[in-house]
């Protein structure tokens, strides 16, 4: 309960920005005495700083606002995708301060992890004046967060790879791993648009297609950390309308669209660059939006969430966001106004960085002293 209260204080300061203790206490639903105690502990832990005394607008008693110590604390992130690994540093306020992309020379797990670890160590040296609160790893597919393994990643072909222990040993950093869609759901809760949503769904569309859902702020994992895989669901309605056999959703993943266009599997940016309205490339992305919009409609009818967040690089193309919304409007029994429920990710252009770093930051903002103690072990 003590560390939970500390997490409530830290999240309140994240949401409010610099604020006096009285405002933070109300926002975190804590007594003034508890707030004073927890604020002192977080200042001593180096997560909060006390700003110079002020009177705000010049009326009332002076006070010293509290602020996140963003200049002193960063989380490192490793996102392992189909064609490359992204290594990032994100401060505890959610600002990306560094990002590097490493193309895979091989999909062999030891080679990918060794290259990632080398870059993490270089980045650690560059950030020697900051405290690194941990290393988060995010990737698609079935990720067992307890065992620290990638159980199965269909595109990479990985099975039972002990990613967490391998990177922890190579870097010396406390390391945690999660499925990138669940990690993105945590990032949206902390830093993005579903912060206040009682229930939410996050759909990730890339070389893998995953979904995450949260109720009362808790992202669902399942007993085997396997929740969220939807790539094997069948596209039945759209296929039936065209007189075609049903297709699994994985046939709409990025690598499948690239293959249909005669491009290498990792060359989605090139396909997006070709996707002007009226082109075959644009039609493929629009078709995918219609199909996955139907999946979103089914998820909405099943879970009735406050918000749905879609992470799809094609959303920036003309008409693609509208295709998602039109499909939800046409197929959902409960969502007549999808524009009030379905949104793009808050982190367009930095989704990989935010999802991987938040694997660590999520724990820090919910049990900060425990997270820092684990880092020191």
TrEMBL record:
InterPro entries: ATPase_NBD, ROK, WH-like_DNA-bd_sf, WH_DNA-bd_sf. Gene3D superfamilies: 3.30.420.40, Winged helix-like DNA-binding domain superfamily/Winged helix DNA-binding domain. This is ROK family protein. Belongs to the ROK (NagC/XylR) family.
């Amino acid at each position: 309960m003590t560390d939970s209260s500390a997490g409530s204080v830290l999240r309140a300061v994240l949401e409010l920005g610099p604020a006096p203790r009285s405002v933070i206490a109300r926002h975190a639903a804590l007594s003034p005495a508890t707030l004073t105690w927890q604020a002192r502990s977080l200042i001593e832990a180096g997560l909060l700083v006390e700003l110079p005394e002020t009177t705000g607008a010049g009326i009332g008693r002076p006070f010293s606002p509290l602020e996140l110590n963003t200049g002193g604390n960063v989380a490192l992130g490793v996102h392992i995708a189909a064609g490359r690994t992204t290594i990032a540093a994100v401060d505890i306020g959610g600002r990306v301060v560094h990002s590097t992309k490493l193309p895979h020379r091989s999909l062999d797990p030891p080679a990918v992890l060794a290259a990632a670890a080398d870059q993490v160590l270089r980045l650690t040296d560059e950030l020697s004046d900051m405290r690194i609160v941990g290393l988060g790893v995010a990737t698609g597919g079935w990720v067992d967060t307890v065992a620290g393994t990638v159980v199965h990643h269909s595109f990479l072909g990985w099975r039972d790879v002990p990613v967490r222990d391998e990177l922890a040993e190579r870097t010396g950093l406390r390391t945690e791993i999660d499925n990138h869609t669940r990690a993105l759901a945590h990032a949206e809760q902390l830093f993005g648009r579903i912060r206040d949503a009682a229930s939410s769904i996050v759909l990730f569309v890339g070389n893998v297609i995953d979904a995450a859902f949260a109720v009362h702020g808790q992202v669902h994992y399942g007993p085997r950390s396997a929740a969220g895989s939807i790539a094997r669901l069948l596209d039945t309605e759209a296929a039936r309308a065209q007189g075609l056999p049903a297709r699994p959703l994985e046939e709409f993943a990025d690598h499948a669209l690239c293959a249909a266009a005669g491009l290498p599997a990792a060359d989605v940016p090139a396909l997006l660059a070709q996707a002007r309205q009226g082109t075959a490339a644009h039609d493929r992305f629009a078709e995918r939006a219609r199909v996955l919009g139907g999946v979103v409609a089914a998820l909405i009818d099943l879970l009735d969430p406050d918000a749905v967040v879609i992470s799809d690089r094609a959303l920036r193309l003309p008409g693609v966001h509208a295709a998602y919304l039109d499909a939800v409007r046409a197929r959902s029994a409960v969502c007549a106004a999808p524009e009030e429920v379905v949104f793009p990710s808050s982190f367009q252009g930095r989704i990989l960085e935010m999802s991987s770093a938040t694997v660590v930051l999520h724990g820090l903002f919910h049990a900060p002293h425990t997270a820092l103690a684990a880092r020191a072990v």
